[in-house]
Design brief:
The protein is an alpha+beta fold. Helix content is 45%, strand content 13%. The chain is elongated, with a radius of gyration of 40 Å.
Length: 610
Amino acid sequence: MGFTQSSHLTVHQQVHTGERPFSCSVCGKGFTSLTNLTSHQLVHTDKRLFKCSDCGKSFKSTRNLRRHQYIHSSQSPFSCSVCSKGFTRSFSLLRHQRVHTEERPFPCTKCGKRFSRSCSLQRHQQIHSAENPFICFICGKGFTQSALLLRHQRVHSTERPFICSECGIGFIQSFQLLRHQRIHTGERPFICSQCGKGFTQSYHLLRHQRVHDLNPLVSNKLRRLNDPLPYSEQSNLEGQKASRIREKQWKCGDCGKRFKAPCELEIHRRSHTGEKPFTCPDCGKGFSQLSNLVTHQKIHTGERPFTCSECGKGFTDSSRLLTHGRIHTGERPFTCIECGKRFGDSSSLRRHKRVHTGERSFACSVCGKGFTLSSNLRRHQRIHTGQRPYTCSDCGKGFTRSSHLLIHQRVHTGERPFTCTVCGKGFSASFTLQNHQAVHTGERSFTCSVCGKGFTQLSTLLRHRAVHTGERPFPCSVCGKGFTRSTSLLTHQRIHSGERPFSCTECGKGFTDSSSLWKHRRVHTGERPFTCCVCGKGFTESSSLRAHRRVHTGEKPFTCSECGKGFADPSSLRKHKQVHTGERLFTCSECRKGFTESSNLLRHYGSHTD
């Protein structure tokens, strides 16, 4: 290399020798020339002697001022020969050309990863050293770059400088706004080379491509699950698995799950520690991620910016809209490799997998019962705490679940949206309709192992078993009577208190429970929804229909233990037992004569009036 002046050659030779004869007296940094030292010393004095005549901005060197002035003149003297993009600095052009040549001259000595810029390598090396020199003074979190710290500080200030012009939602970073705008424009720049499906984000495309990677397992449903895969498929899958492990270098010490970035690992760790650093200012609820807090706050504002074009339903975030859209398209992209069942979202598939593994990750600390979902555990814990957070505004009754409150409110409104197609009877809940339909089909899937009696519901069978065991775990504190159900005890206690919260709108008569009110209403309407298929006679209650059917069948399931005589209903058996015991429950207040039946007592009263 040649030079026009000997002094230039002397300075250049220091590049090869590494000599830096000019040292800064403040920090000790060395330089090859006096001019470079003089420019550097301005860093310590913070003097900015060179001022831009266009915007007034000051710089520490004439070189930086000249580069800045290119912004005002729109001049880019260094152009790329491949794509014609212009640059204000020659080394910026040099860096850019590596995009075309794919040159990455700066390798990491720890993991071998290569970079096109030395500053990118320096930032990357901080991952291995775990060095985070930029510390947030509010929460103490460390960052490898000052730009990352600046973005993080917006979490504390709630500053969102990047605003969407369509819906007004604010974002912390510009790329988040750019991604969001694709929802409005419909742009999907990341296309799957296998099926042509488009995505708004590159990582969504990467996640989708795993569907194709797993096809050897999913598509061949005829292969037995225990059969070994062919060697080519097995080695291919093992290679893919090893590649993904290399991609995910950050491992959780508690559960072994791996992540691609330390920030993802940090968020995951909160699931073990229970840490929820992001708190809603309206209701105080905590969240492990800022994005979850932003979505939650829309509950308070009522904002639902993402609307389904098919049915008009609104959603608080785009992912829920995307999942909802599959209801209309019928798409189920997530497949269980055990049984081939398909699902519309990944969370449903994860929950389903627990059916095969039997995993119940969420255990109650009080009784040890396990649950597949954390939400089911939270609901269960209310049994122990007695908490009923959902309260009826009409009668004050509390419920452990919002869905139970919704069903209960229909008692007050009279709404019965679920109608039987056979008899037209309406029900306030879908499961009640399903139980009712067994009346028409005669199906009784749940049979008592002691007496053989059949039931339409498992809960009814469990309650029936108490007849044989004699167990009555819910005693009345007033009279000591025991009950098999807490709801039966609650209804019974109204006898002592005289409370009748369910009133007939026609005649004002009060009832202790809603079912008695519904049965009473049929007196006014004349409705008899339960019809005998043999003779066509109608009844107001299903129990009356069941008792009537025994007239046709001749069935007498209630047998006297003393004499073996059979009866069609339990009330007839109770009356018969008085023959053996001599008990006369109904006594005349005038002459103290006793009777076995109330009807006989009423007839007897006529002899006194005569």
